[in-house]
Write a structure and sequence with these properties.
Order of helices and strands of chain A: HHHHHHHHHEEEHHHHHHHHHHH
Shape of chain A: globular
Low-confidence stretches of chain A: none
CATH topology of one domain in chain A: Neurolysin, domain 3
Strand order of the largest sheet of chain A: 1-3-2
Number of strands of chain A: 3
Helix content of chain A: 55-70%
Number of helices of chain A: 20
Structural class of chain A: mainly alpha
Oligomer: homodimer
CATH architecture of one domain in chain A: Orthogonal Bundle
CATH class of one domain in chain A: Mainly Alpha
Chain lengths: ~500, ~500
Amino acid sequence: MSEKVLDRVIGQVRETALLQTSLAVLEWDERTGLPSSAGAYRAEQITLLSGLIHRRKTDPRLGEWLAELKESELANDPSSPQGATVARLHKDFERNTKLPVDLVKAISKAIVLGQQAWERARKADDWSQFESHMQAIFSLRRQQAERLREPEGTLYDALLDEYEEGARARELTRVFAQLRDDLVALVQELADAGDPPRGESWRPRMSLERQRAISRWIAEQIGYDFRRGRLDETSHPFCATLGPHDCRILTRFQEDFFPSGFYGTLHEAGHGLYEQGLPTEWFGLPPGTYASLGVHESQSRMWENFVGRSQAFWKWCFPHVQSMGDHAWDAMTADEVYRDANRVQPSLIRVEADEVTYNLHILIRFEIEQELIGGSLRVADAPDAWNQRYRDYLDVEPPSARDGILQDVHWSAGLVGYFPTYALGNLYAAQLMKAANQQLGDMDLALASGEFQPLLDWLRKHVHAYGFCMHPKDLIEQASQAPLDAGALTEYLRAKLLPIYGK
Amino acid sequence: MSEKVLDRVIGQVRETALLQTSLAVLEWDERTGLPSSAGAYRAEQITLLSGLIHRRKTDPRLGEWLAELKESELANDPSSPQGATVARLHKDFERNTKLPVDLVKAISKAIVLGQQAWERARKADDWSQFESHMQAIFSLRRQQAERLREPEGTLYDALLDEYEEGARARELTRVFAQLRDDLVALVQELADAGDPPRGESWRPRMSLERQRAISRWIAEQIGYDFRRGRLDETSHPFCATLGPHDCRILTRFQEDFFPSGFYGTLHEAGHGLYEQGLPTEWFGLPPGTYASLGVHESQSRMWENFVGRSQAFWKWCFPHVQSMGDHAWDAMTADEVYRDANRVQPSLIRVEADEVTYNLHILIRFEIEQELIGGSLRVADAPDAWNQRYRDYLDVEPPSARDGILQDVHWSAGLVGYFPTYALGNLYAAQLMKAANQQLGDMDLALASGEFQPLLDWLRKHVHAYGFCMHPKDLIEQASQAPLDAGALTEYLRAKLLPIYGK
């Protein structure tokens, strides 16, 4: 009986996924080369498809089927594919139907207006043009959180849960506070070092054509499958899934700054490897879906940083890039590149930050948005809180709102509770890398020979294969055989960076 | 009252157009760079969207509204935007609902199997593998024609009407017979000439990068608006409309054959100029839609051939291509290129044919498919009929089915009645060019200075602005102030080609 109902649910959800991936094609296309005059009509197409998708996701019949399944024996084991399917779809349905239509509409509208205002405010470097929109967005998201909040959770938890199921602000606060203290200290130690990398080795110009070839090559080397993907260019790199065998990555090349395209590719290919490793037979359903944004980010950071900024990696990679680079790197050495790939430099802008200070940028946002939702900070005071923390954690002084609180799109897009997943990704990646190193033996030997398959296989087995059948926290704890903790990341950073800085 | 109903209809159809153009994005993407493993899922996405579109197009409420409007005063003037909207949508609805579901399904299935069989048969150069599929397809299309046939029309007319509304086989037969006699004679005259072009000037290799830049440049020169379009690459060039401000063209470059990319671009940009010239406020509705496939083809042929293979055009264009071509054309002259652009050479393959013999390829297909539908020719005898006509009209002997009756995808895709629109395009273009020449004065002077705006303005005013508010035949007769006739095309070809061939 229940099996039949489950089949019906699965059929319905798979069909919805066909629409969602069609929408993803429209969005991918919008960001790769939509003619400049075509934006308004594309928005209409997207709105129509979004409406069709929403109607299917809130179809009362679906709710009835899911309610029935929730009480059936199929729901008994929530980490089995069937159990996870029932549990997650039921939760999704509840979330999609729990919010009053008026609130959903108000949020949509506030986001559209908010993003427009944010763009204007940022251009004009004028916080006051955005303040009232930020107020509206946080107030609406707070109302949403009140509806979705679970008995034992906070308001902020309810928002966080959408991106990182099961995460709790209390635990993150504890782990992040430790991370903050460790990293602030590390940044200070590095600043006092006598022999810092200068970041000059990236400077020789290399033609875009050569860079494209190198990016394609390195993505293939780490295992990204071009029969099931492609590499394109855009202004803000991303990774998009358009089907079970169609996960595309996008990067941005700069002639005079090699890491932009190269690390953009490694980062997005890391996301792509995760998507390509999910069980395709469950595509569009929880067992075929990524576990959380934090886990997703752990995969991109793994390949971008833990692999792509390691000494072993550059030992292997350097001569290849040199020979493909059309003489641009003739005067360089592997060691210079390795050192410059690990330059730590406190700065104002999150997306340009290095592996260490990046986390501090995130923690500042995490602390501020929690206080705003919790009510202990007013939106009007947010810029001061922002600047104060940049002074405290990074010892830099934002000279303007544009390079301060207005730099990110997230809040204007209604994304509250999203930022911490970036730092979680780094913590997860560190724990996974530590475990993989322990289980696979000397990883450096493999990386120094360009052998990435053992690491990828390990990730496939311990992370990718599970899809969204476990809470991300449980998944990472099981894979890394350790509880969530800042230690692994701090250890890894200190072990790598102090020798580079001559300490 | 009726206005309200019309508004409802227009709203419904505009929404359907949002889905149709979303589908067009999926198809464009499929043909520009879909990862090789992603085809099956893309087919599922397309099937789902097609189903949604079909359901909307056959919605009984739409039928009721249209039936009501058909009897209202809004239908009185069928060439007004409102009248054309009512008339065409009503006709569409009737066509979409007149056919029994079983027949529609049988046709869909026959086409899928037919195309697969055609690909196998073509690869194996074995007609017998396709024969039974061709039989099935023609038999089903005949059944369809019996349902759609109008009292005064033939079965073939009913099929033709789908691509070229109002066209009648009897009239086309008369005009095409004249064209055939004229062109067979012309080909013979040219074959006897003493100084034919040798086709050597296209041979110097030119890098794809240079060719891309030249193609983009020439498309811009003739007026194609890149804010509302883009130029991409594919294996079979085409033009796709994805929105009122998003009409994309695609071509195919070959390093050692310049005309492939260049004329592919001019041809598709001609289609694109038509789409960009349609009234955007009526997008998705008849007044914002092209009049017919024949009229569409007249626009592509206008720019590819009547402009792009003229002496005046090359006088202007040659030095530009030479200077952009990175020395590839250093040893050439404008006159050589002009002569080679007009080389006439009877051959086996339609898509590689020149401006003269192309029409004979079409007439052969037109005659055969008419006889097959009419019943005077059996499918089993079609290959013999094909080969006999190639001997008679083109004096060539198809050595195989692959280079003979199996060369085109159309019949396997169920497209019967489609081929004549290609030749109609050439006839229309000749009549339009003759009229434009008369009304605008000496066009050669403008073309020789790279001034294309006057011709484009003329086409906008006399063709594009009407959308699908008139029958294509009436539109062309009004614009050219002459009835459909082979004379203009024959005259134009003789006047251009005989001097080139030293006659």
